[in-house]
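[agent] plan:
  1. take the single chain provided in the ticket
  2. run structure prediction with default settings
  3. attach structure tokens to the ticket
  4. add a short note for the reviewer (M.T.)
[agent] executing step 1
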Amino acid sequence: MEFRSPEFKTRAVHALHDANLQKALSNTKAGFVVKRAKAAEEMPEFEALRDTAAEIKNHVLANLDHYLEKYEAAVTAAGGHVHYATDAEDARRIILGICKKANAKRITKGKSMVSEEMSLNEALIGEGYEVVETDLGEYIIQLADEPPSHIIAPAIHKTKDQVADLFAAAHNKPRKTDRAELVAEAREVLREKYFTAEVGITGGNFLVAETGSSVIVTNEGNGDLTQTLAKVHIVTSGIERVIPSLDDLSVFLRILARSATGQETESYTTFSTGPRREGDIDGPEEYHVVLLDNGRSKMLGSRFQDMLRCIRCGACMNHCPVYGSIGGHAYGWVYPGPMGSVLTPLIKGMDGTYDLPNACTLNGRCKSVCPVRIPLPDLLREIRHNQFRQDMTPKRQKQALKLWRYVAERPKLYHFAERIGVRILASMANGKGKLRSLPFDPGWTGARDLPAPTGRTFLELWQAKRGDK
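[agent] step 2 finished; step 3 output follows
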């Protein structure tokens, strides 16, 4: 996947003025948020499960080598193979080798963000393989030649009419606009692909060390067909996705779907443990697991170890006002939203990723909804500190911070400047209650109005209210 995070500001401005994108985002913003809140409210033990999940992850990360060895031994005992990839290039080399050995021509894929991290599709297609994404959202963006814009809803940025246009062009069939008909058309096209693919590649939501099982959760069943009908099944996953036991898995399954989509559970929860055994009526002849490091081991024992608890539910971006305004493509790499603003600089490096953590408002919503309690605002703030220490902060921003610090350290001057500022802004609103543009910084109001202050500072309002009591 092409790395375009250095273009964040330009891409964000474009996204704010993209009418189709804004329509798509407006249709989906409330759905995930409202459904998650309802699902959490209806489960009295939800908050306790979040605590337990975080504790399990912390235990695994403190003993990651032990659980990876235990998982590898269990996979091997079941007849499978585990491959460790240091980075994306190493992972591509391993997977290309497996496909070549299988004499593959067609490869079906279930949704896998790690495969995006590997730039796997580009590598496979470059070697002449036909690669077919089977998750409906991933299939749509494959037709559009675009990367996913959300980690659980890859085509969230597409409207129904845009999907209809893509299908009509790709399938050479009459254009349909009914959602059910579009889904049926995709199912018809993909069905033949499953039966003729030599290799099926899926992700791995969880890797169970106790049994050597890889676990995927889907709503479409495409993952099941991908991994059972092909002769070779390849699982791609990060090294941090291992968990100790099936009992631990039950904790994560109870919070994952509720956090991601507001469902009690996904439609399909599928366990894969090695290749087909004697007497099995289906399943692959070979089973491979490719575990990707790609900078994860460097996070162990660091200030950013908490980020390795992430279970890729997407709750942080669903609740993020920045993501909700610009979508995922503006972030310019695999992982968008708050979690991506932490992971991308850690994996790809600080160069070219300066704007990602600095776009965050630090409102804290991501932390409040994370099912494994990752302190995302704290981690974003720490990356900002690292940028400052590495002298990456722009000169004008440094000067502005110095001026703000000078004023903030002098309360009388600070309150005087505050009073002048709110009165000027209130007068600029002309009683309309909103500002169409701001002096010196029109970017704030380039795509939205700013609510105007009343003409009094918060402190003045608070003191007046206190005096009324």
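[agent] step 4 note for reviewer: The chain has two domains: 5-297, 399-466.
[agent] ticket updated
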